Amino acid sequence: MLKICCIGAGYVGGPTMAMIAKKCPDVEVTVVDVNERRIAAWQSDDLPIYEPGLDEVVKEALGRNLFFSTDIDRAIRAADVIFVSVNTPTKTFGAGAGCAADLQYWELCARRIREVAESDKIVVEKSTLPVRTAEAMERVLHAGDHGAHFEVLSNPEFLAEGTAMADLENPDRVLIGGHDTPSGRKALQTLVDVYAQWIPRERILTTNVWSAELSKLTANAFLAQRVSSINAISALCEATEADVSEVAHAIGTDSRIGPKFLRASIGFGGSCFKKDILNLVYLCESYGLKEPADYWRQVVLMNAYQESRFVTKMLRSMFNTMAGKRIAVFGFAFKADTGDTRESPAIRVCRQLLDERAAVTICDPKALDNARMELGDAAERVRFELDPYKACEGAHAIALLTEWTQFKELDYERIYASMEKPAFVFDGRNILDHQALYDLGFEVYSVGKALKSHYVS
Ligand code: UDX
Ligand code: ADP
Q: Does 190 lie in the same domain as 325?
């Protein structure tokens, strides 16, 4: 029986391993983490992350061929294949601070594997890493005279939060990079055989290690670039009375462009996009490629512009003062169907609202605990409210920051009646029925669309 160990029980490691265990009953999967609370939560009815469909998959395999443990050394020793799925945040210190990937957790894992392993292992990079990290890892793994052989593969994960289970079950592709050596090809085949148990072989792409590493960064950079591109156009739409949804639809019907990822918004968030682009920028710079670095950096700058443009618009339309005004913030997660708030645009938007001394009430069905943590000290000046109707009582404005379906289905007549007048809606995701809100009496602002105001013609 093939034994897999995954180090890191987070948003990537947990769901991915649960799916492998579900689809491959003849593979034993053990997920380990230094965080005891997380490991306990994975074995409880209250999983540490919210992801639609995850509960069922974990329940099906838990205790059968899916195990969670804090005994990292034991799992490493027992495993044939070790996935490393630890966090690789942006460095906050030293060389490359604010740009380069912080590889300390990854290297710690590599050192741990070398220290405790007693037999040959396939070590799989699952976390997104800079190109040629595998080379560094191989050197760490093989430092000293270790009897065992470590074969490093790169198998980046492309799942998106909120749709992780569908993405894992039916991915566009699985990408595995390995070395073109006898042991590299053998390791690659071992991993291909795992995925081939439920994914058509032609969707399992194999490349060299460096291509796999770079493809992950490139995919995220391209996706984020599309969001920044349509957001740049949204600013122009507001200035020209073009409608960004119409423009997105018109260009998206061109099969070369395609319709996806063209939703104008307050900006992209999530643990990957910004981090991966900055990582790409840092890589370009370290190879002396200034122009490519500047090109990709602009995607991140555009995103920050979109966030602050949204708050500026709120401020201007609310008569240049928000001090003391109550703002109901609808949604704090970086996207719908997740409780994840990492790099959520809502963090910066709320902080800017607090700087303006607005009285902020945050409403989110899944992300209130994370919102409290993200806001740190500032959380003391914020109200957190599960009930959107309560969040709106006496409010001057609603700022919709996450596209949760439930916000579309509210009784806005009731909400309007409970708010201060003029009542403003700022729809940062363009999901509400703007005409209906306007007809109820709201002043309606959206992204990349004409203002609907009862006062301004
Ligand atoms: C992303 C990639 O999609 C995934 O392949 C990779 O493995 C991890 O990074 P994720 O961050 O979970 O996944 O979510 P994604 O759906 O890509 O959205 C990222 C951000 O872009 C969100 O804040 C989302 O709201 C925003 N977005 C997305 C837009 O603003 N407009 C769009 O049209 C699409
Ligand atoms: P991702 O979104 O990439 O999955 P997360 O932060 O959700 O990132 O998960 C990464 C997990 O890796 C965390 O639960 C963290 O505790 C774990 N981790 C980090 N370093 C180590 C390590 N050296 N050994 C084991 N687990 C680790």
A: no
Residues enclosing ligand 2, CB less than 6 A?
Answer: 7-13, 33-35, 38, 72, 85-87, 105, 108-109, 127, 271
10 is a domain residue: yes
Candidates 24, 99, 272, 284; catalytic one: 272
State in Å: Cα 302 to ligand 2 middle.
Answer: 30
Q: What is the CATH number of the domain that holds 370?
A: 3.40.50.720
| Cis amide leading into 365 (omega within 30) | no
Q: Which of 17, 86, 340 to mutate to test the pocket of ligand 2 (most atoms within 8 A of CB)?
A: 86
Which pLDDT belongs to residue 229? 98
Alpha-carbon Rg of the chain, whole angstroms? 24
235 within a domain of the structure (yes/no): no
Same-domain pairing of 281 and 152? no
Closest atom of ligand 2 relative to the 86 alpha carbon: 12
Domain count, the chain: 2
Q: For this structure, is 272 an active site residue?
A: yes
User: Among the residues of 36-103, which ranges form H helices?
Assistant: 36-42, 54-61, 72-78
Is the model's pTM score more than 0.85?
Answer: yes
What's the Cα-to-Cα distance from 207 to each of 3, 180, 194, 214, rounded to whole Å? Answer: 24, 9, 17, 11
Q: Is the pLDDT of residue 457 over 60?
A: no
